[in-house]
Design goal:
Helix content is 50%, strand content 13%. By secondary structure, it is α/β, with parallel strands linked by helices. It folds into 2 domains: 160 residues, Rossmann fold, CATH 3.40.50; 64 residues, DNA polymerase, domain 1, CATH 1.10.150. The strands form 2 sheets. The chain has a 6-stranded parallel sheet with strand order 5-4-1-6-7-8, with helices on both faces. Strands 2-3 form a two-stranded antiparallel ribbon. Strand 4, helix 6 and strand 5 form a beta-alpha-beta unit. Helix 1 crosses helix 4 and helix 5 runs parallel beside helix 10. The longest helix is centred in the middle third of the chain and has 19 residues. It is globular and about 55 Å long. The two termini are 25 Å apart.
Length: 228
């Protein structure tokens, strides 16, 4: 399956859980927010059921429609104060981006997280040169799993891309559904039992357990470039 993938013309990445290790941090941020409303905290396992869900849907589920805007304010205040020390790149993520940059493959981000937060994190990691297109929550007509944010990210890249050679790299069903709907290649980065369920229910063109494995795969294109 993976061996037949052609060299990508562009690669778009999900953010939280794909390039950034944010699960525990976002769990803490939501528990802080829940405390502001007197709602009992939830466990890491409970939070896992909500991780990666579209932002508008998530806030209604967790806080109720009447508290959405207030909850966003509390959550974003926590994130802005703590994200520099609380969020870190996933192991191997920078190496993946470096290989793609060396190959001259343009990259972007398609996320259900607010764009201003993602841009701050990109700056913190020194990744400004890696991404030429970033689409965050609420920018398209609907968030992932809709294909709309990926379509917008492609349009912002401003290149005549072949969708069949355009990759979306992610770790959730929202990412796979988004790319499947638009006809792009789906790259699943996920270890553990949940991967089997996703592989069964979505079209996945490549599955790697982690960023290190994805980097190893991408090096074949690097070697091809060196031969020319």
């Amino acid at each position: 399956m993976a061996e037949s993938l052609e060299r990508p013309e562009a690669v778009f990445f999900d953010w939280d859980g794909t390039l950034v290790d944010s699960f525990a941090f976002l769990h803490g941020a939501h528990n802080y927010t829940r405390a502001q409303f007197g709602i009992a905290p939830f466990s890491l396992e409970d939070f896992g059921r909500y991780f990666g869900q579209p932002r508008e849907k998530l806030y209604i589920q967790l806080y109720g429609a009447e508290n959405v805007e207030a909850a966003k304010g509390h959550f974003e205040a926590y994130v802005m104060e703590h994200h520099k020390e609380g969020l870190k790149p996933i192991s191997g993520a920078q190496e993946v981006l470096e290989v793609l940059h060396r190959l001259g493959v343009p990259c972007g981000v398609v996320t259900n997280k607010k764009k201003d937060l993602v841009l701050r994190e990109i700056e913190n990691y020194g990744w400004d040169n890696f991404f030429i297109s970033v689409v965050g929550a609420g920018e398209a007509e609907s968030d992932k799993p809709s294909p709309a944010p990926l379509q917008l990210a492609i349009e912002r890249m401003g290149l005549p891309l072949n969708l069949d050679k355009t990759w979306l790299v992610g770790d959730t069903d929202n990412d796979l559904a988004c790319a499947n709907a638009l006809g792009c290649k789906t790259i699943l980065i996920l270890d553990g039992g949940e991967a089997a369920n996703l592989l069964e229910n979505y079209e996945v063109h490549m599955h790697q357990k982690n960023c290190q494995e994805l980097r190893e795969f991408l090096l074949q294109y690097d070697l091809e470039a060196l031969k020319k």
